[in-house]
Amino acid sequence: MLVGLTLIQAAHAKGAVCLDGTLPGYHLHRGYGSGSNSWLINLEGGGWCNDVRTCVYRKTTRRGSSSFMEKEIPFTGILSNNAEENPDFFNWNRVKLRYCDGASFTGDSEDKSAELQFRGQRIWWAAMEDLMSKGMRVAEQALLSGCSAGGLATIIHCDEFRSLFPGTTRVKCLSDAGLFLDVYANATSFMFPTPFLGFIRLYGVQKNLPRICTNHLDPTSCFFPENLIANVRTPLFILNAAYDSWQIQSSIAPPSADPHGYWHYCRLDYAKCSGPQIQLLQGFRFDMLNAIKGFSRSNENGLFINSCFCHCQSERQDTWLADDSPVIGKKAIALAVGDWYFERADVKVIDCPYPCDNTCHHLVFK
After folding, report:
1. Could you tell me the CA-to-CA distances from 127 to 11, 15, 23, 158 in Å, in that order?
2. In the annotation, is 256 catalytic?
3. Is 145 marked active-site?
4. φ and ψ at residue 62, rounded to 5 degrees
5. How many domains, in total, are found in the chain?
6. Tag placement on the chain: N or C end, fewer CB within 10 Å?
7. Which of 339, 324, 310, 161 is nearest to 234 (CA)?
8. Catalytic one of 311, 314, 325, 351
């Protein structure tokens, strides 16, 4: 099913614009029947730009300008309108909010000399206001979700999303592949803080981060979910691969930290990792499980951590719900999320370490 792009016409007056100054937008497919008053908002992912040069390039792509966005996109996985493929949310009002600010829908500043607008926080609010005017205001149920940079944005904006609705509305959040860890690159140097620090300064992100974190940690640390999740008051579900392929490629073993190419083949194909490399990846899994210990104590929160080499599993049909989709304890991701959202069961499932799971859809790069 292809769903058309809607530009937010009122956004310009609010200064809520993409990197290049164009209007932001979303794709909306209306709900019906029992789902007509239920809303699912999905925040698009797509990495970050962390300096003027990379942001100037980004504004020539769909990640920085609505001029380059697809006019229609397919709705699959958690956005599917097929009851067999998406049993709990298929007839909800489903929205994909496009990502064009480069910093997970945060920040509020500009660089006039480079003609860059960093207005992610304004885009977030302009989109929410527009959707509230289109019926979301009277939602009986609402779910905020997102993958990758959108999964991080989901964590950051989760409590703000909850604040839009009365207490009688069931509101929850789902972060998919958004649990970016503050890890050592090859145990020799920090990799992630460099790009995060760059755009936190560039975008003016600090003022939009949760104060419960920035009151005792620096802004860069407060962009890492491990320092945020325990303080999110709204029920939150974390869906993540224990061996997140994006983090393996970009954080654990980036080419810049691997001048001799020791990790080259392992980065592209987990089956080509050596014994010591697998041991380091097992350490990454241990760090991830340690980061969610406090979070998992809440009865309202949910977990699905599978031992796969992949990144983003809620938006792809083959991983969300299919005949051979990944499972833990015979339960697919879609069913686990649905059970948690509707409180049919307590869902906190953690897979045994690699290579025990033969249901994974591992990503292999060429």
Report:
1. 8, 12, 11, 15
2. no
3. no
4. -65, -15
5. 1
6. C
7. 161
8. 311
CATH code, 46: 3.40.50
Cβ neighbourhood burial of 85 (10 Å; 0-12, 13-18, 19+): middle
Lowest mean pLDDT among 259-273, 309-323, 330-344: 259-273
Catalytic residue among 101, 130, 244, 351: 244
Q: Please check whether residue 243 is in contact with residue 308, taking contact to mean a CB–CB distance below 8 angstroms.
A: yes
Catalytic-labelled residue, pool 145, 148, 175, 314: 148
- Pick from 44, 66, 64: nearest CA to 114: 64
Which two three-digit tokens encode residue 146? 């997102």
Residue 262 belongs to some domain of the structure:
no
pLDDT digits (tens, 9 = 90+) for 23-40: 999 999 999 999 999 999
Record the pTM: 0.96
- The owner of tokens 């290049």 is 20
Q: 99: domain range?
A: 2-240+316-349
Active site residue 260: no
Are 247 and 308 within 8 A, CB to CB? Answer: no
| Helix or strand holding residue 55 (H, E) | helix 52-58
The tokens describing 312, both together, are: 């983003």
- Does the pLDDT at position 339 exceed 90? yes
For residue 335 the two structure tokens come to 């069913």
